[in-house]
Amino acid sequence: MGENPYLLLTPGPLSTSTTVKKKMMRDWCTWDEDYNLNVVEGIRAQLISLATNKADEYTSVLLQGSGTFAVEATIGTVVPEDGKVLIISNGAYGDRMALIARVLKIPFTKVELKEQDPITPDVVSAHLKKDRFTHAAFVHCETTTGMLNPAKEVMEVAKSFGCVTILDAMSSFGGIPMTMEDLNADFLISSANKCIQGVPGFGFVIANTIELKKCKARARSLSLDLYDQWETMEKHHGKWRYTSPTHVVRAFQQALIELHEEGGIKARHLRYLRNQELLVKGMEEIGYGAFLKRALQSPIITSFLYPHGNFDFLNLYQKLKKKGFVIYPGKISTAATFRVGTIGEVYQKDIEQLLQAFKSIKTL
Predict the structure, then answer these.
(1) DSSP 8-state code for residue 194
(2) pLDDT confidence of 1, banded at 50, 70, 90?
(3) Contact, 235 vs 22, CB < 8 A?
(4) CA-closest candidate to residue 190, choices 158, 227, 143
(5) Which listed site, 28, 190, 198, 328, has its alpha carbon 20 to 30 Å from 144?
(6) Contacts of 172 (CB under 8 A, 6+ apart)
(7) Facing residues of 339 across strands?
(8) Bridge partners of residue 60, in order along the sequence
(9) What is the rounded CA–CA span in Å between residue 135 and residue 318?
(10) Do the Cβ atoms of 180 and 163 come closer than 8 Å?
(11) Are strands 58-64 and 337-341 parallel, antiparallel or unpaired?
């Protein structure tokens, strides 16, 4: 844990390396070529290379704010006035997509599934047959539960109906192997403080260039105009329209270097898988059952059921924090749960120490 008082076992912000944090110790000028051309443009190119094998067909754009800002910018920019978006939700973050559409007065239909049920091609097909939709939006890793939805299959169905596809890959991109073309994704959204293992401050969108070029003057917001942000970066070699979070961006550049040094996304995915498998096995031995069936579970975060009706999560939380670990409360509407993340600068030895901490706390 180094200089940190505790390890963040959350789906982001997450624990970062000392070297990523140290890169924020220098100030940068947002107008300078050293920053825009060498740092920002380098990041944009690397994101494209991580996301696709067809770099000439895709582009990337960075946007200030949390991941939700990037989701709102995407939905608010890419759906035209005469469009309609199908949103299928099995958790809080799918619900948030629908809330964005409602606030922006974008026509949409929200299909709400049970939190333990994955989005399936049949569900998508059934609703696309009922009405005309121009766009379809899904969450890949729904961190409400830890569910990994079958993005490739559901978006393939959406594309077959002519929909432009939007994927919230906030908690999966960089930690689970994927490509835009394999996923049938036109717009993929993620954030600096997730599996790339940077710090909070900006989100990013990988976009089908042809589809993004159709979005000029569509945005419902000045600051969250995805097209205008992209056009400015294209014309001015990485320049942001408004003040760039320079320290965060520089930390992200270092995080990308460290992702490459680890062996890329495949190697990071394997580490996350091993973390999560070790966590679930150990927790089940102690007496904490996982909420989801194993086949539906992502390696990102896991929801555990309260072991009994008198279980005191806040007591557990505070005791774990004193021992150097911070976990998350539950977010599931139908069951009492808490969540433990397995991403970030977290290794098997950390999970082993966490399990020892759990064993030492009398909660069962």
Answers:
(1) S
(2) very low
(3) no
(4) 143
(5) 198
(6) 140, 141, 148, 178, 190, 195, 298, 300
(7) 303, 328
(8) 206
(9) 44
(10) no
(11) unpaired
CB contact set of 91 (below 8 Å; sequence gap of 6+): 115, 139, 142, 143, 144, 145, 147, 331
Burial of 35 (0-12, 13-18, 19+ CB in 10 A): buried
Compute how many other C-beta atoms are within 10 angstroms of the C-beta atom of residue 235: 8
pLDDT at 74 over 50: yes
Please say whether the beta carbons of 158 and 128 come within 8 A: yes
Please state which of the ranges 9-18, 107-116, 251-260 shows the lowest mean pLDDT: 9-18
* pLDDT on residue 363: 61
Q: pLDDT over 70 for what percent of the chain?
A: 98
The answer to whether residues 86 and 133 touch, using CB atoms and an 8 Å cutoff, is yes
The whole-model pTM stands at: 0.96
Q: Are 303 and 337 in contact (CB under 8 A)?
A: yes
The token duo for 310 is 């008198």
Percentage with pLDDT > 90 across the chain:
94
Contact between 223 and 75 (Cβ < 8 Å): no
CA nearest 77: which of 57, 100, 93? Answer: 100
Contact 174, 50 (CB under 8 A): yes
Q: Which residues of 244-258 are buried (b: 16+ CB within 10 A; e: fewer)?
A: bbbbbbbbbbbbbeb
The neighbouring-strand residues paired with 206 are 60, 188
Mean pLDDT of 168-183: 97
pLDDT band at 11 (very low <50, low <70, confident <90, very high): confident
For position 4, what pLDDT does the model report?
78
Indicate the SS3 state at residue 118: coil
CA dihedral 351, 356, 360, 363 (to 10 degrees): 40
- The partner residues of 129 in beta bridges, in order of sequence, read none
Is 38 exposed, middle or buried (CB count within 10 Å of its CB: 0-12, 13-18, 19+)?
middle
What is the C-alpha to C-alpha distance for residues 216 and 239, in angstroms, rounded to an integer?
18
